[in-house]
Amino acid sequence: MQERFISLLYPSRESYAEHQSGKRRPNISDSVCLELGLDEIFNLKSGRLSDFFTDDVDVIRYRQATFADMSRIAGIKETLAKVHPILDDIMELRRLDRNSTNPGDSYLYSITEIELYVSCLDTLAAGLGEVRQQITSPAFAALADYSAELVCSEYYRELNKKLEALAARVHEVRSITVGVNLDRELRPTSAGVISVNSEQFKSGKMLDKILRFSFKNDAFTCIADLSPFGKGQSENRQEALIGAFNSAIEDVFHSSVRGWRSIVGEYVLDNTDFLLKLTPEIEFVTRATELVARLSSHSGCTVTEPTLAPAAEKRFAAKGLYNPRVALAIEEEIVTNDIEFDQRAGLYVLTGPNRGGKSVITVAMGAAQAMCQLGLPVPAAEAIISPVDGIFTHFPEGADDTIDKGRLGEECQRLKEIFDSVTGESMILLDESLSSTGAYEAAYIASEILTGFAVVGCRGIFSTHLHELAADVPEINERSVKEGGVQIDTLVAGIEEGRRSFKIYRMKPDGKSYARDIAEKYGLSFDALAERARAQRGGSL
Q1: In this structure, are residues 304 and 380 in contact, taking their beta carbons and an 8 Å threshold?
Q2: What pLDDT does 184 receive?
């Protein structure tokens, strides 16, 4: 039976090959996944999250159907939960086989591998068969049908019969009787297997055995105590015994198991390999489905399957957007925001007070874009998203924002590397960049950088404490439009009644209002201070 292409994430061999070659894999690195908090919330045990991103709309739609079935049909999740550890065992067995130098071990590994393969395929066919009528995704439909076809094939039935017979023979072996020839000085000269036994030998004494009337029926009682293997023996003697044992095993199973291994090569390996290739995909879809379920169950959180727009449209419009890592880290209801890129805003300058939600919304947008390009529902109530060819982040490396000319140079170098990598279909997320220098220098450099990104035409957010930069937006737009670039608009992290609301508003910033609100909150406004001064003077009279 010819192996078919089965994948939970790719609709065809061609799309899989394109992904493996890197042609349809966007530039979303491990460090970006870390900064967006995705590594933490996905928690993959094997493989890298960055290996699964795609910018192919057809692949994303295929995955959306896969995840829809996973979330909707409990039987699929339960079946994959049973299959995954079996596949892990097969891979570990193959690793042991590659590292083994003992032919006896290799024979036993091959039998165990087929037992695991049969168990895996039976589990798949039974589990998916029970829910086959509910399945609508191409991925799980193909997996259910192919596993059912394999299990129902005549060859598979014959394989099971042969496996049962051989496994019974192997697993019933409890001891081996070895005959040893001696020379005149009673040194062993040669040895051979006399019999393979289903009963273990027992310790005994020569006198007891001689006095037994049932001597002929007591072949498994030794005339001396059994000695634990290796105990009190020299290294050379242990090696000799191991060699004799391995030789005995090889003699016993030489014909039957060696013939069996040819079956493994001709059929079983061809049909287990498609299952082993699914192992990282099974872990990914399982972890991703668990993440979506956790978000959906959190108070105030919704997830939605985004509407996909062509890459050329550069769409990102989300209502009720939130940061998934923050949502999972707190118990209270999450604050959501709306954000959209349009003709007046290909890029945003986001200003506001410290800890007012600037970083949270910046990461939220990147996480939604990334989850979309994994084929997942995104953390929002509604979303229309075009795939990007890369997500590039520049986040602060630490809490120390003191002026440091050396760090400024490093920041500028990193920003230059990002600029050299972006295209008009990329996303940039800059959070408090250039905080290592004074406000005047930082605003000037940031203005130059933003103008460059606007001319390239990428989309994204520059989150900053530099209110001077927001004031320069009209001048930046004038320079960008002349070069055929996109326009920039401003966002403001809001303060309501002196308290951070974590709401983001599309408006022009007023830096003085932030200072005034903070001053009033801490009683540092002139009115508050003057009143206190008057009270102090009155108290001293």
Answers
A1: yes
A2: 83
Sheet containing 499-506: order of strands: 391-394, 427-431, 459-463, 347-351, 488-496, 499-506
Q: Which of 121, 150, 165 has its CA nearest to residue 259?
A: 165
Q: Please tell me the distance from the alpha carbon of residue 325 to that of residue 360, in angstroms, as a whole number.
A: 9
Instruction: Give Rg (Cα) of the chain.
Output: 35
Q: How confident is the model at residue 311 (pLDDT cuts 50, 70, 90)?
A: very high
pLDDT in tens, 335-370: 899 999 998 899 999 988 777 788 899 999 999 999
Contact 289, 77 (CB under 8 A): yes
Average pLDDT over residues 504-533: 69
Lowest mean pLDDT among 178-187, 211-220, 264-273, 295-304: 211-220
Q: Is the pLDDT of residue 258 over 80?
A: no
Euclidean distance between CA atoms 117 and 106, whole angstroms: 16
Q: Which residues of 211-230 are buried (b: 16+ CB within 10 A; e: fewer)?
A: eeeeeeeeeeeeeeeeeeee
CB-based contact 451:475 (threshold 8 Å)? no
Question: Could you tell me the CATH superfamily of domain 302-509?
Answer: P-loop containing nucleotide triphosphate hydrolases (3.40.50.300)
The pair of three-digit structure tokens given for residue 516, joined into one six-digit string: 């005034």
Spans of all domains in the chain:
13-26+41-172+263-286, 302-509, 512-541
Q: Which residue, chain included where needed, has tokens 């995840």?
A: 67
Percentage with pLDDT > 70 across the chain: 74
Interstrand relation of 499-506 and 488-496 (parallel, antiparallel or unpaired): antiparallel
**CB under 8 Å to 398, separation ≥6 — which residues?**
none
The burial of 22, by beta-carbon neighbours within 10 Å (0-12 exposed, 13-18 middle, 19 or more buried), is given as exposed
